[in-house]
Amino acid sequence: MQSVADRRAAGSLGRRVQQIVQQPLDGTEMRQALETLAATYSTQTVDSRRHRDVRSEMQEHTQRLDADFVRALGEVNAVFTDLEASVQHLDAQCSGLRVQVNSALRATESVSAQASLLVDEQRELAMRSTVARGVLEAFTLTDADTKVLDAGVIDDAYFDVLDRVDRTRRECQRLNIEQTAVSDLLAQLAQHEESAYAALLRWVLAEIRVLSRDAPEFSTRLKQALARLESHPVLFATATAEIASARCDALHRAFLAALVRGGPNGTPRPIEAHAGDPQRFVGDMLAWVHQACASERELLDTMFSRSAMQSAHVPHMLAAALAGVARPLEIRMQQTVAELAAPAAVYRIDSLLGFYKTLFARVCSADSSFVQIVDSLAAQARDKLAASLDALADAVISDLDVQSGVVSPALDVPASLHALLAAVADILRLHEDSVQSHEASSVAALVTSVIGRVQSQVYELVQQLGHLRPYEQSMLELNIWSSIHDTLSAFMSMQDTTSADALIDTLQEQLLGVLKQKSHLPFDSDTKVSEESIELFNHTLKAAMDLDVSRLTSRLNNHAVARQVSEHVIQKFVQDYARVYQQYIDSGSDASTLLSPDSVSTLL
Q1: Could you tell me which of 4, 320, 464, 546 has the fewest CB atoms within 10 Å of its CB?
Q2: What gap in Å lies between CA 257 and CA 161, rounded to an integer?
Q3: Which of 556, 592, 566 is nearest to 477 (CA)?
Q4: Phi then psi for 311, rounded to 5 degrees?
C-alpha cells in the first residue's frame, strides 16, 4: 500500500495537472508559456520528450473537450430549434385567439359601454345613498327623540329635543338639495314639531292655574316653556291670554279684599274705611292699583324672557290683568266724584287721576281698556270741576242781576264772587304745590275761561243797575276787578290791565263831573261867575262834605287806586278851577270874594 506521503504527493500533482489541463490553450499567456518551454527543452533529452508527451496529451484533452462542447452545443441547438417551433406554434395560436378576442370585443362593444354606464350609475347611486343616509341622520329625529316627544313628560330632555327640532328645521330650510326631499323632511319635522308644541301648550295651560293665586309661585320650566312658545305666535298668544285671564281674576279678588277686609289681621285697614275722606279714599285705591301694577310687572319680568318683555305682549298682558280692577275702581270713583261739591276737592281727585294716568300709560299700552277707563275718570273729574266752577260763576251773575238788588251801599263785592275766587285760588294753590305738572295749560285755560265769562257778564250787569250812580257803577266794577286781580295775580299773569286803566279813567272823569256839579261854578261854559255861585261854592267848600273826594273813593277796596283817583280828581279840579278863577279876575271882579286855586287845593 502507498504511504500517506505518497498519496498526498499524487493528490497534489493531480490537482496541478488538472489546473493546467483546464487552462485555455488559445490564450496569449498560455502560448507564450508553451513557446518558452519549447525553447528551453529544444534538445532531445528524456525530459524534453516527457514534456512533449504532456503537451500532446493536453492538446488531445483539449480537442476532446472541444468535441464535447460542440456536441453539447448541437444538443442545445436542437432544443432551441424545437423551442422555436413551439413558440411559432404558440404565436399562431395567439394570433388566432387575438382575432377571436377582437371579434368578440367588437361584438360586445355596446354591452361594455352599457356596463360602463351602469357602473357609473351604480357609483352615483351609492354616493346618493351615502348622502341620503347622512341627511336622514342629520335632519331627522332618532327613535330616542321620538320616544321623548311621545312620552309628553316636560323636562330638560324634552326641551333639548324641541331645540333640536327647531335647529334641524332651520338647517333643513337652508339645504341646497332637491325640493322634494326638503319638502318631505320639512313635513316630517313640522308634524313632530306641531305635536310637541301642542303638548307643551297643554302643559303650560295646566301650570298657569297656579297664577290665579294671590302670591303665585311658578317653576323655572314654565319660564323655559314660555320661551320656547315665543317662536310660535299663535300658541304664545294663547298662553299669554290665559296668564292675563288668571292674573285678572286674582287681582279682582285681591282688590275687593283690600276694599272690604283690608290686609292680614286687619292691617292695613280696609280702603273703604276711609270713604268719608274722598281724597284719601281715591288716593288709597289708586295707590293699591299702582302697587299691584308694579308687582305684576315684576312677576312678568321673572316669567318671560328679555325679548318678550321688549315686545308688545307684556304691556297688553299687564293691561288685561289690570282690567280685573277697572270696573270696581270705576264705580267707586264715579260715586265719589258725584258726591263732591267743593271745586278744590274735585280738583284733588282730578289731579290724582291725572298723575296716576300718566304712570299707568308708561307701563300699559295706551289703547288698553284700563288706561282708557282711568282717562275717562280723569275727564269726568275735569268736567265735574268745570261744572262746579260754572255753578259758582252762575251764582255771581245771579247775585248781580237787576231783580236781586243784593249790591250793598258800600259797593262790596258779592259773597258769591268771593266764594268763586276762593275756590279758584285753592285750585291754583293746589296745582302749584303738586309734584307733577300734567295738563297745566288746561287748568289755566279753565280758570281763565270761567273768570273771563264772569267779568264780561258782571260788567254788563253792573251797567244795568239803575239804583247806582254812574261813578258807583264804575267803583263797583273796579272793586270786582281788584278782587279778581288780587286773587289771581299771585298764580298767573293778568292780561287785563288795559281794561283796569280804562275803568280808572272813567271813574276819574265821573268824579270830576260830580265835584264840578257840586261846586256850582260854571266850568263848562263861558258864563260869567255870579256872586250867588261864588257864595254857594264857598259854603260848599267850607262844609267839606260834598267836595270831599276821599269820602267818595272810600268805597274802593283797593286803597292805592282810591288814593290815585282822589289825587288825580283834585288835581284836575284845581286846574279847571284855576282857569275859572283867571277868567273871574280878568273880568275886573273883586278877587277877595273867590278863593285862590292854591287855597282850594289845600282845602280839598
Answers
A1: 4
A2: 45
A3: 556
A4: -85, -175
**AA identity, residue 81:** T
Residues 6+ apart with CB under 8 A from 141: 149, 161, 164, 165, 168, 189, 192
Q: Is residue 46 scored above 70 in pLDDT?
A: no
| Banded pLDDT at 497 (limits 50, 70, 90) | very low
- Cell for 413? 263785592
Alpha-carbon gap, residue 430 to 182, rounded angstroms: 71
How far is it, in rounded angstroms, from Cα 122 to Cα 319?
66
- Output the CA torsion sign for 435, 441, 444, 450: negative
Instruction: Residue 487: name the closest of 426, 556, 555, 399 by CA.
Output: 426
- Of 458, 463, 575, give the one whose Cα is nearest residue 515: 575
Helices (H) and strands (E) in the chain, counts: 22, 0
Q: Would you state the cell numbers that stand for residue 426, as one nine-digit string?
A: 285753592
Percent of the chain with pLDDT over 90: 2
Phi, psi of 275 (to 5 degrees): -65, -25
Peptide bond preceding 268: is omega within 30 degrees of 0, i.e. cis? yes
> What's the grid cell of residue 222?
314654565
Region 369-379: mean pLDDT is 88
Q: What is the pTM of this model?
A: 0.63
Terminal C-alpha separation, the chain: 208
Name which of 484, 506, 504 is nearest 495 in CA terms. 484
Mean pLDDT is lowest, of 79-83, 498-502, 586-590, for 586-590
Specify the higher pLDDT residue, 517 or 235. Answer: 235
Backbone angles phi and psi of 384, in degrees to 5: -65, -40
Per-residue pLDDT reduced to its tens digit, 95-138 = 888 888 888 877 777 777 787 888 888 888 878 766 666 555 55
Residue pointed to by grid coordinates 267779568: 455
The distance from CA 91 to its chain's CA centroid, rounded to whole angstroms, is 95
Nearest to 336 by CA among 348, 323, 325: 348
SS (H, E, C) 68-119: HHHHHHHHHHHHHHHHHHHHHHHHHHHHHHHHHHHHHHHHCHHHHHHHHHHH
Helical pair 531-543 and 497-519, crossing angle rounded to 10 deg: 120
Helix (H, G, I), strand (E, B) or coil at 514: helix
Q: What is the pLDDT of residues 215-227, one digit of tens each?
A: 677 778 888 888 8
Cβ atoms of 324 and 256 closer than 8 Å: no
3-state helix, strand, coil in the chain (%, to 5): 80, 0, 20
The predicted structure's pLDDT at residue 498? 46
Q: Hey, is 181 helix, strand or coil? A: helix
CB 413 within 8 A of CB 478: no
Q: What distance in Å separates the CA atoms of residue 364 and residue 372, rounded to the nearest whole number?
A: 11
User: What is the number of other CB atoms lying within 10 angstroms of the CB of residue 142?
Assistant: 11
Angle at 82 between CA 77 and CA 85, to 5 degrees: 125
The angle that helices 179-207 and 143-151 make with each other, rounded to 10 degrees, is 30
Q: How far is the CA of 545 from the CAs of 519, 540, 548, 550, 574, in angstroms?
A: 11, 8, 5, 10, 17
Q: Encode pLDDT of 133-159 as tens digits.
A: 655 555 566 777 777 777 777 777 887
